[in-house]
Structures are given as C-alpha cells and as structure tokens.
C-alpha cells in the first residue's frame, strides 16, 4: 500500500521535493497503524489533503509525461532505501516506465503531436543517463511483463485503439535495455510494439458470426497524423535494431522478417531495412550471414 500511494504522489509534477518528503513520512506513519485511516476517526482529519497531492483532471497523464523530468531523480539520494530493494531512483525509474508504456490516443493538431514525440524522447534521454544495476533490471523485467499482459491501459497490450500513440521509440529503449539480461522478453516486447494500426487501410464489416457470410471490405479514413513520417522512421529504427541483434539466430531473424513484412507499409523504409540487413550480413570481420542475406533479398523483392 505504501509503495502504491508513494508512486501516485511521485507522479504529480507539481509536488515539490520537500512535500514528497513530508508525504513519505505521513505514509510511513499510516503504514504502521493496524487499521486503515478511513476506519478510524482519529486519522480522518489527515485524509482530505491526500487528494491534493495527486494529479487531477483528464490531462494528468500528459502533464506527468511532459513534466516528469521536474522530479530530477538523478539528484535524489539514490541509495537512501525506503523499503527492502527500493530507493528513490528505482521508484522514479519504475514510474517513468509506467508513464511511457501507457496507452494514449494521439491528440489533434501538429503542435500537440510534436509535443507527444518530444516529451517521450526527453524522458527516454533522461533514463539513458542511468546505469542499470540488478535492482533496475528487475524493475524493467517486471514492467515489461506487466505491459505485455495488461489490459487497455497498456500500449503493449494485445488489443489497442487504432489511433493509439505507437510504442516504437519506447520499445527500442526497452529492447536494448533488456537484451543483455532477458533476450526473450526483449524480443517479445519489441515485436508487440512493431504494429502501426493507423495505417491499416481496410477493415471487415458485416456479420462475421455466420461462416457463409462474405465480409465486405470498406476503406477506413486516415486520421491526420502530422508526425507520421517521424513515427514510421522510429518503426524502421526498431526493426533495424532487432535485425542487428538477431544476427546468427535463424529463428529470431525469421520472426523479425515476418514482423517487418506485416507491419511496415513504407516501401522506402523496407528498402532501407534490406540495405541494413545486407550491411549487417557482410561485415568485414566475419563470414557472411546467409540467413540475413536471405532477409535482405526478401525485403528487397518486397
């Protein structure tokens, strides 16, 4: 309970460090009592201000994403442990991963869409400054599994809204971070993130419950995604990163190839990936990777 409440308070971009310290003291006090404060009138006067510490309104998630860097977790006493295995640093990193992995609808307008990309990249840039130790790797694993198995709140869940903000940039960071420690989980996360549903131009309509019914195909109207070219570039970067890492692994190379053929719609990016695969396959310090050469050929033909 203490960890969950503290996480909620850390999410508030307007909460100052001294306020966080005060809340931490209060939460520890509540955690030590035998009954929930709501059940005991002696604690009732402390409760109303709790809601003031939490982010409010429909734009809270966007505000958290935009201003999370205000926490400046690199300046917190990283080795001051709250509970066993927890520190301000580990909690801050976990909150960042939760925020980056949440499913959210792409907003309207050029400025708002550019801000989504910029805020995500700024937060990932902050995270990249941190050297991952065993405690942080454990958090990365935990959050990756949670995001893959979670419901509609996760951008890496099995089912997402067609206009969800793509997870390519986040997934590339997650992939490179997890790869040395849990390759299977790294690939599973990255492959799930490869989809770009907004470019799926046709959808079946009609009664699909009847086997004899032939579904009519009607074109879907494309939303106005002004940052689509940037998003497709990030999708291509994610695919290239997986191709590079999978060199020498036939099974994984075939899986990545299938994902590229299914999810990437831009012919120029498919051509770039064919070139990347060829370069990776023919590095001077080793014999050519036959499987990667085949991948390069198939992508070139496509």
From TrEMBL:
Domain of life: Eukaryota
A Gene Ontology term for the protein's cellular component: Cul2-RING ubiquitin ligase complex
PANTHER family assigned: ZINC FINGER SWIM DOMAIN CONTAINING PROTEIN 4, 5, 6, ZINC FINGER SWIM DOMAIN-CONTAINING PROTEIN 6
Name the UniProt record assigns to this protein: ZSWM6 protein
Organism: Oreotrochilus melanogaster
């Amino acid at each position: 309970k203490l960890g969950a409440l503290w996480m909620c308070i850390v999410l508030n971009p307007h909460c100052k460090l001294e306020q966080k310290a005060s809340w931490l003291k209060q939460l520890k006090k509540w955690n030590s009592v035998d009954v929930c404060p709501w059940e005991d009138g002696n604690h009732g006067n402390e409760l109303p201000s709790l809601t003031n510490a939490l982010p409010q309104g429909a734009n809270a998630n966007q505000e958290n994403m935009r201003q999370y860097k205000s926490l400046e977790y690199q300046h917190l006493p990283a080795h001051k442990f709250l509970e066993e295995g927890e520190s301000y640093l580990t909690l801050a990193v976990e909150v960042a991963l939760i925020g980056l992995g949440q499913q959210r609808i792409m907003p309207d307008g050029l400025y708002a869409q550019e801000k989504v990309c910029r805020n995500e990249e700024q937060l990932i840039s902050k995270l990249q400054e941190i050297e991952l130790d065993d405690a942080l790797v454990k958090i990365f694993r935990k959050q990756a599994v949670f995001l893959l198995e979670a419901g509609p709140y996760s951008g890496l869940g099995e089912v997402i809204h067609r206009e969800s903000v793509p997870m390519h940039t986040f997934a590339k960071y997650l992939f490179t971070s997890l790869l040395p420690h849990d390759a299977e989980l790294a690939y599973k996360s990255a492959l799930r993130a490869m989809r770009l549903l907004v470019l799926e131009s046709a959808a079946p309509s009609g009664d699909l419950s009847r086997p004899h019914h032939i579904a009519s195909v009607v074109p879907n109207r494309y939303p106005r995604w002004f940052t689509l070219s940037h998003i497709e570039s990030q999708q291509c970067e994610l695919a290239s990163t997986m191709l590079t890492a999978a060199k020498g692994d036939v099974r994984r190379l075939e899986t990545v190839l299938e994902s590229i053929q299914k999810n990437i719609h831009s012919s120029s990016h498919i051509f770039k990936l064919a070139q990347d695969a060829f370069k990776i396959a023919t590095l001077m310090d080793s014999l050519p990777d036959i499987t990667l050469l085949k991948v390069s050929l198939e992508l070139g033909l496509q």
